[in-house]
Amino acid sequence: MWQGQLRLSLVSCPVALYGATSRGGDISFHLLNPETNNRIRMIPTDPDTGPVERADLVKGYEIAKNHYVVLSSNEIQAVKLETTKTIEIERFVDEKEIDRLYWNDPYYLLSGEKGGAEAYGVIREALSQAGRVALGRVVMHTRERLVAQEPRDNGILVYTLRTADEVIPAKDAFADISSATPDPKMVDIARKIIEQQEGDFEPAKFHDRYENALRDLIRRKEKGEKLVPAEPVEDNNVIDLMAALKIKPHGQGRFCPGQSRGPA
């Protein structure tokens, strides 16, 4: 994703960023002409002159309706910061101080050359012993991004962080929600439900059931099976949470964690 230098004061080493997640297995569809089954080509088109070559296009920033400042690739490339080729560690913070709203995409930061392995190891070990997250900046995809770095196994894990102007304050989003204190008895029942469903985080046990259903649909279609449309999902099966929590199984005045209450 990026290559350059990682620098901590006078210590630096060549490094490279690699994506820590993959979406290569996701299902993706192409648009086809149903009469020919040919894949449709998306051709850049000028509304006045017709189709144009993508290689001839330039980038423009709209400053008013249909008025643009046009920038060539060379002009954009000329805007270079030191962070275009260097991740310089600027500050060390406690991970708990970073609100989860700000965490973005994960990357692996690897030593870029054998000659830089020692300096890379020094920085990684220093991070490990400090027990802090290192903050720095890097230019990726025409944007300077704030990044958080932390030791992970024998390497360094990097997260891009959102900036303050990218995050909508929670107090604004929840401004219309009542601040009245809920009924303590109802909260106690809800807490018992939470305790009943407590468990460890095991991501391997969670699968995209919708994508699995799509894969099954594609497999059946490929085999020529006759597909029967599924029954429409009822959208009016809404349960009043407060009414559901007030249900007393078998006339008892408390919630029995092991007892089923029917659909929820």
Offer a few descriptive terms:
264 residues, Ku70, Chain: A, Domain 2, 21% helix, disordered C terminus
What would your notes on this structure say?
- With 264 residues, this protein is of the alpha+beta class.
- Helices cover 21% and strands 27% of the residues.
- The strands form three sheets. The chain has an eight-stranded mixed beta sheet.
- A hairpin with a 2-residue loop joins strand 11 and strand 12.
- The C terminus is likely disordered.
User: What CATH architecture of the domain at 2-21 and 79-166 do you see?
Assistant: Beta Barrel
Biggest β-sheet: count, sense, barrel?
A: 8 strands, mixed
CATH class of the domain at 2-21 and 79-166: Mainly Beta
Looking at CATH, which topology of the domain at 2-21 and 79-166 would you report? Ku70, Chain: A, Domain 2
> Number of helix segments?
6
Share of residues in strands: 25-35%
Computed structural class: alpha+beta
Helix coverage percent of residues?
10-25%
Q: Output the strand order for the largest sheet.
A: 7-1-2-9-12-11-10-8
Rg from Cα: 27 Å
Overall, the morphology is: extended
Question: Roughly what is the average pLDDT, rounded to an integer?
Answer: 85
SSE series: EEEEEEHEEEHEEEHHHH
Give the end-to-end Cα distance, rounded to a whole number of Å: 45 Å
